[in-house]
Structures are given as C-alpha cells and as structure tokens.
Amino acid sequence: MKIRYLSFDFDGCLFNPSYAQAEHFEFTKHLGDAVLVHNRRFLEQIKRENAAFDNVVALIGSNRQSYETDQLNMGPQKAFKGSCCPAIKTVCADLNITFDPFLLADVTGNLPFGTSYNLIMQEIEAGNFMQDTTQYEHATCPGEEYKVSLLFAQMQKAAADHPNEEIIFDFFDDRYEILMGRAKEFFTKYPHMIPKNVTLRMNRYAGDDVTLMASIEGTGEPYSNYPEHVNNMLNDLWAHDEIANSLKPISNEQHTDIVLENNYKFEEQVKALETAIQTGEYIALNLAAREIDHIVEYTEAVDTNEELSTEKELESSNNLSPLSYFTDNSSGEPRAKLAFAKKNHSHNEINRWFQGYQQPEYIEDGDRIILFINVHPDSPYKDPSLFEAIEILRQQHIELSDNAIETLQQEFNSVLPVLEQAKSIAMTYDVDFKQFLDGYTNAFSDMPVDYLVKYKNHELVENDGREKEANIGNLNFSDRSDESSDEESALELVEDDSREKELDASTDDFSDSDSSVDASDEESDLKPFEDNSPEKEVEVDVDKQTLATETPAIHARSEAEPTNQQGNPAGNPGRNQYAFHKPAAAPRTNRAPIALPEDKLCSGSSSCLIS
User: Fold this and answer.
1) At 8, which helix (H) or strand (E)?
2) How far apart are CA 480 and CA 425, in angstroms?
3) Does pLDDT of 79 surpass 80?
4) What phi and psi values does residue 171 have, to the nearest 5 degrees?
5) Would strands 166-173 and 2-8 be described as parallel, antiparallel, or unpaired?
6) I need a labelling partner for 216 at 20 to 30 A (CA). Which of 96, 266, 479, 592 fits?
C-alpha cells in the first residue's frame, strides 16, 4: 500500500497573492471556495497525481499551528486571507482526500491530537474569530521560521499511523529559504530524523507552477516518543543539531565503547568522592565544582552563539535594553536580524508594537528575542524596514549598541550605491525602485543617510521622554509614483531673540490622485507671529502640503480616518487591526498641519510572523 501525505503552507502558497488581493466578501473569504478558485490549476494537478496512491492525507504545513498564530495572520483589509482551518477542509473536500487535524499546539499543550483544530473551528462558527474574542482556552506554541520541528513532527506522526506502508510526504511552500535553506540542509544532514519508510519531497508553489526542490529518503526508525523530541526542538531552536546527533543510532561496537567509558568515569568519580570525604574536603569540592560548571556553561553559551557575541549587553545602568544587529546567511542569502533581551515581553506585547505592519517574524533564543527583517519583500502588505523596526523598538527603550551601530553603518554604506542605482533606473521607467532590490537590500531602502551617525552621537532630540530625530538627512528612496511634482520642500524655524521666524523655501506638491483631501481639511489655523509689530498671518497654499526638513522616523495616521476599519462590521480585520500605528511625530507650534498622502501599503492591517 502506497500512501501520500500533502502538507500545505498557506501564507504565500495556497493563500497566494492572487487569493490575498481578491475581494474579502465581508471578511468571509476563507469560508467559501476562493481558495479553490485561486489554486485551480494546482489542485487539478494534485488530483491527477493522487490517482497513483492508495490513500492520500492532508496536513496544515503552515506555521499557523495555534489559534493565536492563525488569527494573527488573517491579513489586512486590502489583503484579507482569514483562517486556514476552514480553507484546508474546503481543499480536502475538493480533492476527496482525508484531512488530519494535527497541530503543534496539541503537542505543546499535551492535548489529544486534533483538539486545537476543533477548538479553532468552534470559535469561527461562533463568530469569535473576527471579533478577537475567545470562548475557549487555546494552547500556544513557539514559532519556528524554517519549519524543521513541524516537518519532523508531521513525518513521525505519518509513520506512526502507517508503520508498514511506503509514504511519500509532499511538502508545499513558497519560500526558498525553507525549501533550499535550513530545512533541506537539516534533513539532508540527518536523514535518520525521517522514518525509513518515508520519502520527503520539498516542493515550491506560490500560485503558479510547482517545482520539486529536493527529495530525501529517510533512514531512521520511527520514534514512539516523538512529541517529547518535538517539544525539545521547539523549546531550543538552536539545539536542533545537538538533538539530531543525540538521536542518531549507534552500532553495537559504539554502544559497548560508550558503556565501558561510562563505567570507567563512574569508578573515577566514586574514588574521588571517597577521597574527598576522608580528607574533609567534600563541601569545598562541591562548591568549587558548581563554580566550574557555571564558568563552563557560560563559555559554551558564548561559543555556540559566536555571531551574536555583541548581544551579551543585557544589563544597563540607564535602564535601557541594548539592541543588537547581525546578518545571517543560513538561508542562502543575507538576512538582516535584530536581537534584544526577552525580559518579560510577551508575544502579544511584541505584536502590539508592530501594529500597522505585517508582523515581523521572530524567535526566542534563551534570554533573547531575534527579529527577522524584511522576510516577505514581495508581500502585498508592508514589512517594517530596518529603520522602522529600530525606531519602534527605541520607543520601547530598546536601543542600538555601539557595536550594532558600527556594523549597520558599514553594511548601509555598502548598499548605498545599489539603492542609488535602483532609484535612478526606477525614475527612468517611472516604476517603484524597490522591485530592483532583494530582501536584504530592501531592508535599508528608507534608512536616512546620517541617521546612524546621529544615533551614535546621541544627536537625537528628546521628546516626551523618548528621543526623536532632529533634521536627519534622507536619500528619499520612497516611492513617489503618485506624487504630482518632484519639487523639494523645506520649512525652517529659526529662533532670534526668543522670537520664532519662518523662512520659506520651495515646497513639495504632495497631492495624491488616489487620496484627495477636502480643502476644509487642508486649511491650517496658523497663529500669527509676534515680532514686536502688528500681527501678520502667513498664507498657505491649500493645494500644497508643507513638510519640515526633518524626516520623521515614523508618521501616525490621522485618527479621523482609521481606514483599515472602514466597512469592517467585525471591527477587526486581522492582526494589524488598527490604522498604520507608527509612533507619532512631536507636535510643533506655528507650523501648518501635515496632511499625509494615503499609505496604500498600510491602509489595512497586516501578518507574523509567519508563512
């Protein structure tokens, strides 16, 4: 009997851009057949291939392995995706195959398999999913970007359910860094982590053609206690290699050698203990041993995280948490990452910091949180860039260390020529310059030129207890395709004998055809200036928006129009359920109010972590 398992990713895969940008039908898209419509050719191919198997079973191969992560990834208003739980049932019904409701939350919560999925479906049927309320208590599980733990758990379960059958395990995902990066490398290096009756096939699908990226035959024995190993892998994402080596089968000769060596060590320890007791030094030796163990453990922790050696600055006399930066190449291309002390920050708290964006992916590494920047550069909604992530974290008193600033400055200098060239080409063809950048370079696309220098020199102005940028120059790489003019604007406030004078400069025309603003909203109530003379009113052209030379780190959208909640009866279109909540710029006096163009990327809410 030959059995096929289908493990489907959702975000970017079955929930591909075509699906995400389709009409949400009052936020019920995930309950209908939209997932079939936007994957029809792919599903027909699956049907034809299924004819060669005696039985076909489907699993959720997304990182949406709990109620929390499924809800956080439902998407913003303009790219609404919804829950993957009803969608997978729709797909299985269309393919006429069996659905296995196994989720990692069952493992971490020590629940009967299928419990977490059934509770999610009950929340959806009760209308709680869109209301951000819960009727039941749901188990959670740590997130893992590269899905090694998830694939290990699913393949072990498949082998446990069909111990004597040949199993073809087809995993479908859209991300190269999973298919060609860590997951492929791990199972290629440790094939014993795949049961010997299972063949893992890693396929790329993102709404178009399917490509087989790797096929790995298992050599291991199934583990009856695999949930225990899964929990260990999820609890320490850096220990996967160590866990795999500990589970590697050994020969009889190796087993005999290990037993003899352990017996010898035990005899030596007994002799040492007897000697210590006889000489009355037992207590002293015990204390000394604890000190040695402490030193060894600390040394090993530093050695195994050599690339993060600058992150050991977890204490600070000014009550600030240091923020570290490093680049990881494990996925085959550079990935920008930020790390900071975990302290008491919860998942929900970190997610709230980044409301208004697609939630960044992050993992817990001991006492650290590691944040992945620009994970989805091709996403229809907006990831926080490096600059924006640093500013958001700075609002939470998490600030770049000097080493991190120096590393960032070096890498920023190296990508500047690429950014300038992309901008030049984009202006020639009147397109968005970011399409010429990869995920790593794109992370730096909006970094002000002298921001890091001012950051290091503490030249950022204090505002409401936090620092804010002061006249930071910017290359202005933002997409200006909707602007009607390329004129430069500047507004300066100069203090002279305690009196402010406004110096006019050329202004920008920031009118946007897609986001017209009423003249009544554009009028500014400027107070007259005092200059030991009769009051004078400053005329403002209502057809133009006047901007300060200062480039604010992050703008706040007007509370008058929370665009992502318009037309949303549930009042909560997803994990980014609020308008583009970037930290607000400091209020200024004697200055025309700034009416920002509509931010199309953030007019709705946005995803985590996660694919």
Assistant:
1) strand 2-8
2) 14
3) yes
4) -105, 130
5) parallel
6) 96
Q: Evaluate if residue 386 carries a pLDDT over 60.
A: yes
Residue 400 has pLDDT above 80, yes or no: yes
Confidence of residue 279 (pLDDT cuts 50, 70, 90): low
What are the distances in angstroms from CA 117 to CA 89, 308, 348, 505, 559?
A: 11, 37, 21, 60, 37
pLDDT in tens, 180-230: 989 999 999 999 999 999 999 999 999 999 999 999 999 999 999 999 999
What residues have CB less than 8 Å from 386, skipping those under 6 apart? 325, 336, 338, 373, 374, 408, 443, 444, 447
Q: Name the more confident of 347 and 236.
A: 236
Q: List C-alpha distances in Å: 391 to 375, 475, 578.
A: 18, 18, 19
State whether residue 435 is helix, strand or coil.
helix
CA 108, chain centre distance (Å)? 21
What is the identity of the amino acid at 407? T
Q: Looking at the DSSP assignment, which residues form a beta bridge with residue 322? A: 399
**Closest to 573 in 3D by CA, of 72, 239, 173, 191:** 72
pLDDT at 247: 92
Q: Tell me what pLDDT residue 593 has.
A: 43
Q: For residue range 108-164, list pLDDT tens digits in order.
A: 999 999 999 999 999 999 888 887 778 888 999 988 889 999 999 999 999 999 998
For residue 526, is pLDDT > 50? no
- DSSP letters for 441-484: HHTTTT--TTHHHHHHTT-SEEETTEEE--S------S--TTBS
Average pLDDT, stretch 383-411? 85
Q: What do you get for the CA distance between the two ends of the chain, in Å?
A: 33
Strand-strand pairing, 466-468 and 461-463: antiparallel
Please determine, for residue 57, whether its predicted confidence score (pLDDT) is greater than 70.
Answer: yes
Average pLDDT over residues 9-37: 91
Residue from 499, 529, 508, 503 nearest 590 by CA: 529
Instruction: Please state, in angstroms and as integers, the Cα–Cα distance from residue 37 to each residue in 45, 75, 89, 178, 207, following that order.
Output: 14, 19, 15, 26, 11
Whole-number Cα distances in Å, 44 to 48, 91, 94, 234: 6, 11, 10, 35
Give the torsion sign (CA, 354, 355, 358, 364).
positive
**Three-class SS string for 332-377?**
CCCEEEEEEECCCCCHHHHHHHCCCCCCCEEEEECCEEEEECCCCC
**Average pLDDT for the chain:** 72
The CA dihedral of 264, 270, 273, 278, to the nearest 10 degrees, is -120
Q: Mapping DSSP to helix (H, G, I), strand (E, B) and coil, where does residue 57 land?
A: strand
For 237, 375, 402, the CA distances from 143, given in Å and listed in that order, are 9, 14, 29
Average pLDDT over residues 231-252: 88
The Cα 386–Cα 335 span in angstroms is 11
DSSP 178: I
The amino acid sitting at 211 is T
